[in-house]
O-fucosyltransferase family protein (Nymphaea colorata), 112 residues
Amino acid sequence: RLRCRCNFHALKFAHKIQETGALLVRRMHQQTLTQSVLDDNLLGHFRASSTRTGEKFVLGASSKYLAMHLRFEIDMAAYSLCEFGGGAEEKKELDTFRAIHFPALTLFANST
């Protein structure tokens, strides 16, 4: 379950980013044979179907993961409605930015 209220499934990365991401995921998966169902969506055709000859990943099994914001700017942070651990001062700054630039999100956030 995602913490953010962004349209996660609409995100598509450039091929170079998918290729780099696939390399990172392969390196992380060298310790385990589990693979997330989302790997195909995020990494496209760069996703490996197996790490070792003849061994298949176990789809849907739990595994460790890495979350990485490639574009960490105030508009992205405000739009995602996430909390990034900056305390009350950060929350106030994001709320102010959101009220000016994304008034519909402010209404949505106040109604939930």
Summary: Residues 15-29 form the longest helix (15 residues). The first strand starts at residue 34 and ends at 35. The radius of gyration is 18 Å. The CA atoms of residues 64 and 97 lie 33 Å apart.
